TrEMBL record:
Parts of the chain that traverse the membrane: 816-843
Domain Cadherin: residue ranges: 138-243, 244-347, 365-463, 470-567, 568-669, 703-797
SUPFAM superfamilies per record: Cadherin-like
GO terms under cellular component: plasma membrane
SMART domains assigned: CA
GO biological process per UniProt: homophilic cell adhesion via plasma membrane adhesion molecules
Pfam family, one: Cadherin
InterPro entries assigned: Cadherin-like_dom, Cadherin-like_sf, Cadherin_CS, Protocadherin/Cadherin-CA
Name this polypeptide is given: Cadherin domain-containing protein
Species, as recorded: Didymodactylos carnosus
Length: 889
């Protein structure tokens, strides 16, 4: 900021007017004059106008009280001396108080001064402006937006600088600090308004902003602060968004996850600023699409699962618009759903009305079907049809299959069979309710898709059998004093359809009768004698009267005036599990006194209790096991319980306790071979040439003559009963099933000898059918031999058996066998060295003797040669044509 240079003139001039009653004194002063110089003697000033000085000397001056609120506060009057009483003389300060105008060059401060007479002095201090204020912009930065494509010479009003000086010194002009953009912009200052003139059309795509720096200068030459004007070229939005593709296509699996991104569409805008694209989804479909789009990113996401079986193709459009919505563009989108194997095959059964059960609990489950057939139904009878459907396309599934997966209980052959040709369900065998009267059959349908899927349907097959009474005999007691209509007892027969059972008394009698619907037996007439009434009661299936059952009822007629304790049953049967921790209760017997019906008066005791692992509560008849029971030792206990009433009368009843088996015994192999030879014909056996192989193996495959050849039999026993003692045999190594097969009777067959190594150790384990199942293991070592050289087979494999035993025996014996092997090798080497030395010695001896005989023979030959030569000197005819004719030696 430039500091102004101020000329501190004290008093410019003084003028006095009308000094009769009122005297006007005008004092001219420049602003910012030194305050200490602003003092005036009123008498001296008045004397300059009037010569009667004595008059003024007698005056006493005082300030007007009415003017103290304005200008009087700036002055102080002491006697005749008037002084300016403020820190500085600033014209602009008085302008703020509206004592004068900023535009005026002079500012008048008027003050009324009174005397003790009627004489009044009007004092006016006239302050003249100086260029002491620097122009200033109220803002250092402004932002303006000028739209592109406007016609040239467009004006944009700018804020002006502020200068409180008078018009003589205030703003003179505005200019750019830098002249970089003088060809584009111009500053126009007129009528105290500043405008920015655009000299040419602006283009936002070429340049989007300009930084202008503006300065103001007053008439005194002082310059203002810099105004930074940020000019932003406003976008006209003449370009519409453009997608990167003319259309979008996408394939998704129907297993596509919800809220995952299907694809991303993208559009761009060549406009300068409005580059924010708003995406929206447009569809002509009435049904809502399973897609949504992120309006900012263009990301298309799945909102709900898609199903190929419902819709395979979705077509819609994506709209890309500017944020202001003026321009937009649209692109088509196609999303095709690919079928995956996501639908399980469904099984439908149509059971014939004669065999369908209604009002059965299982019918609440759509995956369950209940069937009932008569026990005497014929084999091959069709009871229903079956249908398998799959909503997936055949390109995915390829083929559907159905099979009978399981049939419980496993102890019996399944009573149903599937006819795949006619897709019907038929009866497979004769039904026998003595074995089982209910079967749970599981049908399973499979497709061939990826991954393969399956579904199951459960069939509950109930066999309508003849009714069966819960007891073979019923025992009832009845007093001879009972009146007709009294209830004697109740019998019950079990059946798959109890509502169809009808009870009748087969034996002719007039004393008792039975309720045909519930089996209640009641008295019809009085019986006056004590005896046992023996009756036969029959339960008949009313839908098929060929199905019935009979039971015997014994009614004991007694005289309550003379009777012994009466047990509820003539005998009691209890079942108890073995290996149960004792003591524990197994059941209760009950007897009553027919006279008093007082239970507390009956005492119970065991007969021959010392030999039994039981005791009885003497008061309530509760039987308690005192020792742990073992079915394999004793499986049944038969004893008597005696009831005594107050030591006067007794009776007894028979107790049967059956020990139920638990799976507490492991199958045990007995009398089994540990080694077996398999004899085959025309097989090549060779010894491996590898020094690291100690076991002989075949170089050629076993021929097909080995197919289904019995090789051995294994046998294991299990002391448990029923399924707990039933044993099945399995191979522990799955590779063994490529060569051998084992049957449930323990027979082992070789059916594939190809690539069978020898010797081959076959591990078999026996497994019972208890819960939990128990197993044991056994192994057999097989050797394959030529059937034509049986006598050599044992010797042939002696070394191998030793080596195999060495290799396969338990690790604790390895060091022992290894030392034995080294000792054997050392002995063999020693014997070999001795034999080699002996043989070499004999060889040298024989060679020496042979050389001597050859030397003698050579001498003889030489002698013969000399003789021939000597004879030839005397015989000229020994040769003919250069060849020797004959030589005699």
């Amino acid at each position: 900021m430039i500091t102004p240079v101020i000329n501190h003139m004290s008093v410019v001039t003084t003028s006095i007017y009308n000094c009769k009653d009122i005297c006007d004194l005008n004092v001219y002063v420049h602003e910012n004059a030194p305050v200490e110089n602003l003092k005036w003697n009123l008498i001296d000033l008045l004397k300059q106008r009037v010569n009667t000085t004595n008059y003024f000397d007698q005056l006493q001056f005082s300030l007007s009280t009415t003017s103290k609120t304005t200008t009087a506060t700036y002055f102080q009057l002491s006697s005749s001396i008037l002084s300016y009483n403020h820190s500085q003389l600033d014209r602009e300060e008085f302008c703020k108080l509206n004592l004068c105008s900023y535009e005026q060059y002079q500012c008048d401060l008027s003050l009324s001064i009174f005397t003790q007479t009627s004489f009044i002095v009007i004092f006016q201090l006239i302050i003249q402006d100086q260029n002491d204020i620097v122009p200033i912009f109220d803002q250092s930065n402004i932002d303006i937006v000028i739209r592109e494509n406007l016609q040239p010479f467009y004006h944009y009003q700018l804020p002006t600088a502020r200068d409180l000086d008078s018009n003589m010194y205030n703003i003179d002009k505005y200019s750019f600090v830098n002249n970089e953009f003088n060809h584009i912009f111009e500053l126009i200052y007129s009528n105290n308004e500043l405008n920015l003139k655009v000299l040419k059309t602006l283009d936002c795509e070429q340049r989007s902003s300009y930084q202008l720096k503006i300065i103001a200068q007053d008439k005194g030459g002082q310059k203002s602060n810099i105004l930074s004007c940020n000019v932003t070229v406003g976008d006209f939005n003449e370009f519409q968004p453009k997608f990167q593709q003319h259309s979008y296509n996408k394939y998704i699996n129907e297993s596509f996850l919800v809220n995952d991104t299907v694809m991303i569409v993208s559009a761009t805008d060549d406009d300068c600023y409005d580059k924010i694209i708003i995406y929206s989804l447009i569809s002509d479909s009435i049904v809502a699409l399973p897609f949504r789009i992120n309006s900012k990113t263009g990301e298309i996401m799945l909102t709900r699962s898609v199903d190929y079986e419902q819709q395979t193709t979705y077509r819609f459009r994506i709209k890309a618009a500017n944020q202001d919505g003026i321009t937009n563009s649209i692109v088509p989108v196609t999303i095709q759903v690919l079928d995956v194997n996501d639908n399980e095959p469904r099984i439908y059964t149509n059971i014939l009305a004669n065999y369908k059960i209604i009002n059965r609990k299982e019918i609440d489950n759509d995956n369950v079907e209940s069937i009932i057939v008569d026990e005497n139904i014929s084999i091959g009878q069709v009871i229903g049809t079956i249908l398998v459907k799959d909503d997936d396309s055949m390109k995915i599934n390829k083929q559907l299959t159905i099979s009978l997966l399981s049939c419980l209980p496993l102890t019996m052959i399944c009573p149903l069979i599937l006819d795949h040709d006619s897709m019907t369900i038929r009866i497979a065998r004769v039904l026998d309710t003595e074995q089982d009267d209910m079967y749970k059959i599981v049908l399973q349908a499979n497709d061939q898709g990826t991954p393969p899927l399956l579904s199951q349907r459960h069939l509950f097959l109930y066999i309508r059998h003849r009714p069966r009474f819960t007891q073979k005999k019923y025992y009832f007691y009845l007093s001879i004093s009972s009146s007709p209509g009294s209830t004697i007892g109740h019998v019950e027969a079990n059946s798959t359809e109890s509502r169809l059972i009808e009870y009748t008394i087969v034996t002719a009698t007039n004393f008792v009768d039975i309720d045909s619907t519930n089996g209640t037996i009641y008295l019809k007439e009085f019986i006056y004698i004590e005896y046992v009434l023996n009756l036969t009661v029959q339960a008949t299936n009313t839908q098929n009267r060929a199905l019935f059952d009979q039971t015997i009822i014994l009614i004991h007629m007694y005289n309550q005036n003379n009777c012994s304790p009466l047990f509820d049953h003539l005998s009691y049967t209890f079942n108890v599990s073995e290996q149960h921790i004792s003591p524990f209760e197994i059941g209760q017997v009950h007897a009553m006194d027919c006279t008093s019906n007082n239970k507390l008066s009956v005492t119970y005791t065991l007969i021959e209790a010392d030999t039994l692992p039981f005791r009885i509560n003497n008061d309530n008849g509760m039987l308690i096991v005192t020792h742990e029971l073992d079915r394999e030792t004793i499986d049944k206990y038969d004893f008597y319980v005696m009831a005594t009433i107050e030591n006067r009368t007794t009776s007894k009843t028979r107790i049967y306790v059956y020990v139920i088996d638990r799976n507490d015994h492991i199958p045990t192999f007995v009398d089994n071979y540990t080694e077996r030879f398999i004899y085959v014909s025309s097989i090549e056996l060779s010894t491996s040439s590898s020094s690291t192989s100690l076991i002989r193996r075949h170089n050629s495959d076993i021929d097909n003559s080995l197919a289904s050849e019995f090789v051995t039999n294994v046998y294991a026993i299990d002391m448990d009963d029923g399924l707990n003692g039933k044993i099945n045999y399995y191979f522990s190594n799955s590779d063994a099933y490529h060569h051998f097969h084992v049957y449930n009777n323990g027979s082992i067959y070789l059916y594939n000898g190809k690539n069978l190594p020898t010797p081959y150790r076959l591990e078999i384990y026996a497994k019972d059918n208890g819960q939990p199942a128990l197993t044991s293991k056994n192994s057999i070592l097989f050797y394959v031999c030529d059937i034509n050289r049986k006598h050599e087979c044992n010797e042939h494999y002696q070394d191998e058996k030793l080596i195999t035993t060495f290799l396969l025996d338990e690790p604790s014996k390895t060091n022992y066998y290894l030392g034995s092997l080294f000792i054997m090798i050392a002995i063999i080497c020693f014997v070999f060295i001795v034999i080699s030395c002996t043989t070499y010695h004999v060889f040298l001896k024989v060679k020496h003797s042979t050389k001597m005989s050859q030397r003698t023979y050579n001498c003889r030959i030489e002698a013969r040669k000399n003789l021939i030569v000597s004879d030839s000197l005397y015989d000229n005819t020994t040769t003919t044509n250069g060849q020797l004719k004959s030589v005699s030696v």
